Amino acid sequence: MALSIADIQHLFDTYGALAYSGEPVTQRQHALQTATLAQDSGASAELVTASLLHDLGHLLNRQGETPTERGIDDLHQYYALPFLRALFADAVLEPIRLHVDAKRCLCAIDPAYRAKLSADSVRSLRLQGGVFSEDEAQAFLAKPFAEDAMFLRRWDDLAKDASRSTPTLAHFLAIADSIVKPVEANR
């Protein structure tokens, strides 16, 4: 089943107040902060939308609070893709799909990066396969949209401040709506 922009709004309205996996923000705050960081960095509408929706899989496949503490990797980076594929191009979908592997790559290529990860991100890193080897990192970096995924990942890591103000969800959903695939492409 494909989601509409109204369905995405409903998911955030219904489940956005849930805690963001061991962090001091809600799912909605995290999504809005990530999208705000992308927008403030001058990212494209596609990457801003990917930043807003990168963790939508958590809202579609709820595993309770802090599943990593129970050894669960919910594979959220993949879960939302079938629901979003009719709406968005690969410039939105691929950074979402790749943002977990971007963390694994950044840990391999940037020694300071891993030290800045939150406790939950360190737990999830182990569950998601750990730090990439040099060969895995190079293979990741060669993928289309890897660079966008790494930008998204860094914004994701910074989007955990309970006091940060952001534009509204409506603001970002309007951006998402502006890049929805034409109806003919959805057939």
Layout of strands and helices, then pairs:
Layout: H1 5-15, H2 27-40, H3 45-53, H4 56-60, H5 76-79, H6 81-84, H7 90-109, H8 111-115, H9 119-127, H10 134-141, H11 146-158, H12 169-178
Helix pairs in contact: 1-12, 2-3, 2-11, 3-7, 3-12, 7-10, 7-11
Write a short abstract of this structure.
GO terms for molecular function: hydrolase activity. The chain has 187 residues and is mainly alpha-helical. The protein contains twelve helices and no strands.
Report on the structure:
The chain has helices at residues 5-15, 27-40, 45-53, 56-60, 76-79, 81-84, 90-109, 111-115, 119-127, 134-141, 146-158, 169-178. By secondary structure, it is mainly alpha-helical. It has one domain: Hypothetical protein af1432, CATH 1.10.3210.10. Helix 2 packs antiparallel against helix 3, helix 2 crosses helix 11 (146-158) and helix 3 packs across helix 12 (169-178). The longest helix is centred in the middle third of the chain and has 20 residues, at 90-109. The chain is globular, with a radius of gyration of 16 Å. It starts with a helix and ends in a 9-residue tail after the last helix.
Would you identify the regions where 5 or more consecutive residues have pLDDT less than 50? none
Q: What share of the residues lie within helices?
A: 55-70%
> SSE string, helix = H, strand = E?
HHHHHHHHHHHH
Number of E-state strands? 0
N- to C-terminal distance: 13 Å
List keywords for this structure.
globular; mainly alpha; 187 residues; Hypothetical protein af1432; single chain; 12 helices; 0% strand
